[in-house]
Design a protein that fits this description.
about 550 residues, alpha+beta, Dipeptide-binding Protein, domain 1, Dipeptide-binding Protein, domain 3, 5-stranded mixed beta sheet, 18 helices, 20 strands, about 20% strand, globular
């Protein structure tokens, strides 16, 4: 692994250089009324319902609260609502829709003490406005299916509302992704022009407006690509945040991130967007006496999307050759010490719906080459395969987030392995806010795109795999089916899984979903990631969940010892 040694040496050199530049400790160490956190990405937007990006979710976790969420034990609980509706307690009532379908009416009550940061009560007016924006179809609001299925909302009073869904799903009461918007602030921006709303929302034009937030903290300062400053929200109804101020600094280079921690320029590195497990292990070996390092396996899935509009990638055999050519087990063992196991599908073994008996693609370069020969890529020119008749080169562009040393290293290893069978892969990376905010959202990548998905327990991948969720200009670039995968059986399975209440029957459907996933291969599964949280010895209460909901949602439980 000469590539690895060379990159590691470079990382150490950068670490030393940056460490000298940042040798003066910050004030947080002396006062303890401030916490400075380092992460590797800056959000493409602060709107909670536009674009999907972990950096945004992490920051907004300090400032907002969902109606429902999965807790640390993976149980669904209320945060903004007073009581979780269920069929058993009568707050969820199966019903027939006007069209005769089996639906359900679910009633939620907003906490009576919930206020926006400007002191205005959170009411059903905000609920109805949020729903209206999501139902518009031109705003790019996610998730599409939630707003489509919730065909009616009835406000019973200022605090209680009933959502009428056109189907009875197994997770009928989970509205985790229904993120409230303040009607009194953003309605004017939406009504001016729904099509341009995503570019004119107050979340981006007036990000420090306190009326946008209702968590323990408010965003009081932002500098694009650099940092976000959070300060205590005096209108927060719960236990006060443990720090007067939290600063979140964006440091895309992980070597620089480590240097900033050692210099005292930051106090901790978030596990959600920080060091990889191998980097954290090396760091712990050198500096473990000064920091607490916590590792958490979870539902985070590193993979490569394949753009199925690319004529070469439309050939399933080419997709199979791509995965047979790479040695994912070697990557797991040699780069991550086996702590980030190979992913053979999109479902983590930690999730109860995981199917252990689906087909597995082994590392088999000979098989990869045989497949390519059958596809008539038999002409070799400087080691690269070309089609025997058309002369087309077997070449793809490969993208990921710039500055992520682990991803860039994996890229180079994969590039080398593909080259060994005659596939030419050209690397072109971008800053995370561009990559997620434009390239992925608008499907501008032409070949391969590497990143990670986080999910909740038994999270149905409608947004990622259903053909109705391919982002287009017409739907405001909503949806997260970035490969452009179209498969009628997959669409039908997703729809059946959602409404199957019997767990055993649902598990059988999940198995078939995973089988199609690995057979059709719109995505190359790489590995399931573990997160490494690097924290000062004096910080307490940070408890990773192992699923998509960030530790920041429970910041009021953090403390100082």
């Amino acid at each position: 692994m000469k590539i690895r040694k060379r990159l590691y040496g470079l990382a150490l050199a950068v670490l030393a250089a940056v460490g000298v530049a940042l040798a003066v400790p910050g004030p947080a160490q002396a006062e303890r009324d401030q916490l400075t956190i380092g992460i590797t990405q800056y959000p493409s937007t602060f709107h909670p319902n536009i674009d999907s990006m972990l950096a945004k979710s992490y920051i907004l976790g300090f400032t907002r609260r969902p109606f429902t969420v999965h807790d640390h034990s993976w149980n669904l609980v209320c945060m903004l609502c007073t009581k979780l509706p269920t069929i058993e307690n009568g707050l969820a009532v199966p019903e027939r829709t006007p069209g005769g379908k089996k639906g359900i009416a679910v009633t939620y009550t907003i906490r009576p003490d919930a206020f926006w940061g400007d002191g205005k009560p959170i009411t059903t007016d905000d609920v109805l406005f949020t729903w209206k924006v999501g139902r518009n179809g031109k705003t790019g609001t996610l998730p599409i299916e939630l707003y489509r299925s919730a065909y009616k909302i009835v406000a019973q009073d200022d605090k209680t509302f009933t959502m009428h869904f056109d189907k009875l799903t197994f997770n009928y009461n989970a509205i985790n992704a229904f993120s409230l918007l303040p009607a009194h602030v953003d309605r004017v921006n939406f009504e001016a022009d729904p099509v341009t709303y995503k570019n004119k929302t107050a979340f981006d034009t007036d990000t420090t407006n306190e009326a946008l937030y209702f968590g323990p903290y408010l965003i009081t300062e932002t500098k694009r690509g650099s940092h976000v400053v959070l300060e205590r929200n005096p209108k927060w109804w719960g236990k006060p945040g443990p720090f007067k101020r939290i600063i979140i600094k964006t440091i895309p280079n992980t070597a620089a991130l480590e240097a900033n921690l050692l210099s005292g320029n930051i106090d901790m590195i978030a596990g959600e967007l920080g060091l990889t497990v191998d980097q954290a292990l090396r760091f712990e070996k050198r500096h473990g006496r000064k920091f607490n390092v916590l590792y958490k396996s979870g539902l985070i899935y590193e993979h490569i999307d394949l753009n199925l509009d690319n004529p070469l990638l439309q050939d399933r055999n080419i997709r199979h050759a791509l995965i047979h050519a790479i040695d994912r087990e070697a990557i797991s063992q040699q780069l991550f010490g086996g702590r980030q196991p190979v992913a053979h599908s999109n479902v983590n073994p930690l999730d109860w719906v995981h199917a252990p008996d689906i087909p597995i693609f082994a590392h088999d370069p000979k098989k990869a080459q045989d497949i390519l020969v059958k596809a008539e890529f038999t002409k070799l020119n400087k080691g690269i395969r070309h089609h025997a008749e058309t002369g087309q080169a077997l070449r793809f562009e490969f993208m990921t987030t710039a500055g992520s040393k682990a991803r860039e290293l994996v890229q180079q290893v994969l590039q080398s392995q593909w080259k060994s069978v005659g596939i030419d892969v050209r690397i072109r990376n971008e800053p995370a806010r561009v990559y997620f905010g434009q390239t992925m959202t608008q499907r501008k990548f032409t070949g391969l795109a590497m990143y990670a998905w986080l999910s909740a327990p038994e999270s149905v991948p409608r947004g990622q795999l259903h053909s109705a969720h391919i982002p287009t200009r017409a739907n405001g670039w909503a949806g997260q089916n970035y490969p452009g995968f179209r498969n009628k059986e997959m669409d039908a399975l997703i729809e059946k899984i959602e409404v199957e209440l019997d767990r055993e029957k649902r598990k059988a459907l999940w198995r078939r979903l995973q089988e199609i996933y690995v057979t059709e291969l719109p995505v190359i599964p790489l590995y399931f990631r573990a997160s490494a949280f690097v924290m000062p010895k004096w910080l307490t209460g940070v408890e990773p969940t192992g699923h998509q909901y960030a530790t920041s949602l429970w910041v009021e439980d953090w403390g100082v010892k």
